[in-house]
Each structure stands twice: as C-alpha cells, then as structure tokens.
Amino acid sequence: MEAWVEEAVVAADRYAMDRLKLMCQSILGKYLDVETVATSLALADQHNCTRLKDVCIEFIRSLDQVDAMVATEGYVNLKRSCPSVLADLFEKTSRKMVLSTVL
C-alpha cells in the first residue's frame, strides 16, 4: 500500500494538489514503523510535507528502538539525500530533552 501513496505524494506535490497531498500525509503518518519512518521523513522533506515531517520526527523522538531505525536502508538514504532533516531532528529532540529536565 505504501508505494502507491508515496507516488501520489510526489504527483500531488508536482501538480499542486494540496488536498490529495494532505490525505496521503495522513495515511503515511498512520502506518509509520521502525522500517518506514526514515523513508517517510525523507519523502516529507523532499516534497514539502510539513505535517508528515512533524509526525515522523515525533515518532522518532518517542521511539525506544532508535538503533533499529538507524540500521534501516531508509535511514541510510535519509542521511545521504536529506542531511538537513537530521539537523532538524537533533534540534527538536534536544529541545524536548531540555524542556523535560526544566519542567
């Protein structure tokens, strides 16, 4: 199911079909797991899907198995194709850690 949704995101972004793009982001966000989150995050970054990007980052921040996610092919591709996303992820995770120690 995921492959056609990813293709729909690309087409929706290319042809400015905002409603379709939002629907696809919602679908992808509901089915995130350790294996798919890095790929979905790269897709979100490359096609300006801010909602999906936020959901992916939140998923990773709450993930107990970060080592498993880092070992995926999707993470390798994310690191290569979207290094700025890793900086965003680090900054948001750092803020969460600081806020949790302050509160």
UniProtKB/TrEMBL annotation:
It comes from the Eukaryota. InterPro entries: BACK_BPM_SPOP (IPR056423), BPM1-6 (IPR045005). Gene3D superfamilies: 1.25.40.420. One of its GO terms (biological process) is protein ubiquitination. Residues 36-90 form the BPM/SPOP BACK domain. Belongs to the Tdpoz family. This is BPM/SPOP BACK domain-containing protein. It comes from Oryza punctata (Red rice). The lineage of its organism: Eukaryota, Viridiplantae, Streptophyta, Embryophyta, Tracheophyta.
